Amino acid sequence: MTDAPQASDRPAFQLKGTTVSLTALELAYFDEDSFEAALREKIRQAPGFFRDIPIMISLEHYEGPTAELDFFKLLGICRRHNIHVVGVRGGDEDQRRLARHAAIALLPGSSRQERPPSPETRPETDAPAEAELDSPDSGNAPVTPAPARVVSQPVRSGQQVYAPEGDLIILAPVQAGAEVLAAGNIHVYGPLRGRALAGVHGQEEARVFCQSLEAELVSIAGHYKISEDLQERGWKAPVQIQLRDDLLVVTPLDRSPG
Fold first, then answer.
1. β pairing state of 223-226 and 217-220
2. pTM, rounded to two decimals
3. CA distance 72 to 102
4. Closest CA to 214 of 180, 175, 257, 254
5. What does the pLDDT look like over 1-51, one tens digit per residue?
6. HEC profile of the chain
7. How far is CA 160 from CA 180, 195, 241, in A?
8. Helix 32-45 × helix 71-80 angle, to 10°
9. What value, to the nearest 5°, has the Cα angle with vertex 160 and ends 245 and 153?
10. For residue range 131-178, what is the model confidence (pLDDT) as tens digits?
11. I need a surface site. Which of 66, 133, 185, 192 has the fewest CB within 10 A?
């Protein structure tokens, strides 16, 4: 009989790469009172969405004076409301220096700026792009899509259903107070009354489809709309919801999004 391995016989931890979806708070300027008032109003609209949420502060559209950018006050306000700032994106060197002094991680710039060119803007080469993908000598293995998670029972209030790798397909209603999340698309073949969060790893191409839009909140890649906003278009009708130019667009299912 061999002795059980001692704790000292194996490493205390391992480092692994991962992808986490973060909501970006795009800061235009910072005034302590205005910031907290606006934050309170957002939380009032969707309290469940903001509870213990990690966010990053985006300074890519910041227009206020750097001297007024007090990260210590900003962090304090967020912590009082159970919101956790995990990093800062963008900003000039002075602003990033202030973030370092507040012990906030510095994140790379927006992924939108780092995307490869689309087929329409791709530089010309001697061979078409299709030849690169289809060539048997290219060494590119076929990509196997992640399997969808299929749920046939109603998702009841207080329940959470998560598809961490692919699409989520629900063949029943999602009740008020329930939450459904997916790395890819979300399909609800019934009323969607709870919260639906698609593209939770940052996939901006993800969509939400439902037979009756009655949701408390819909989010795609961290961009969200609450019930009051969703009622302006397609309420209690079959719709698809997608992200266009950082805005959620609701389109009836009986016609093309155009």
1. antiparallel
2. 0.56
3. 6
4. 175
5. 555 556 567 888 887 766 666 788 999 999 999 999 999 988 887 776 777
6. CCCCCCHHHCCCCCCCCCCCCCEEEECCCCCHHHHHHHHHHHHHHCHHHHCCCEEEEECCCCCCCHHHCCHHHHHHHHHHCCCEEEEEECCCHHHHHHHHHCCCEEECCCHHHHCCCCCCCCCCCCCCHHHHHHCCCCCCCCCCCCCCEEECCCECCCCEEEECCCCEEECCCECCCCEEEECCCEEEEEEECCEEEECCCCCCCCCEEEEEECCCEEEECCEEEEHHHHCCCCECCCEEEEEECCEEEEEECCCCCC
7. 6, 9, 20
8. 30
9. 105
10. 333 334 444 555 566 789 999 999 998 888 999 889 999 999 999 989
11. 133
Please classify residue 134 by burial: count the beta carbons closer than 10 Å to its beta carbon, then call 0-12 exposed, 13-18 middle and 19+ buried: exposed
CA pair distance 88, 225, nearest whole angstrom: 23
Distance CA(1)–CA(239), nearest Å, equals: 63
Instruction: Please check whether residue 221 is in contact with residue 204, taking contact to mean a CB–CB distance below 8 angstroms.
Output: yes
Q: Which of 160, 201, 192, 187 is nearest to 173 (CA)?
A: 192
Q: Are 220 and 241 in contact (CB under 8 A)?
A: yes
Longest CA pairwise span in the chain (Å) = 70
The burial class, CB within 10 Å (0-12 / 13-18 / 19+), for 23 is middle
Q: Which tokens hold the place of 91?
A: 């900003």
Q: Which two tokens stand for residue 151?
A: 């749920």
Partner residues linked to 168 by β-bridges:
149, 186
Of 135, 136, 160, 138, give the one whose Cα is nearest residue 149: 160
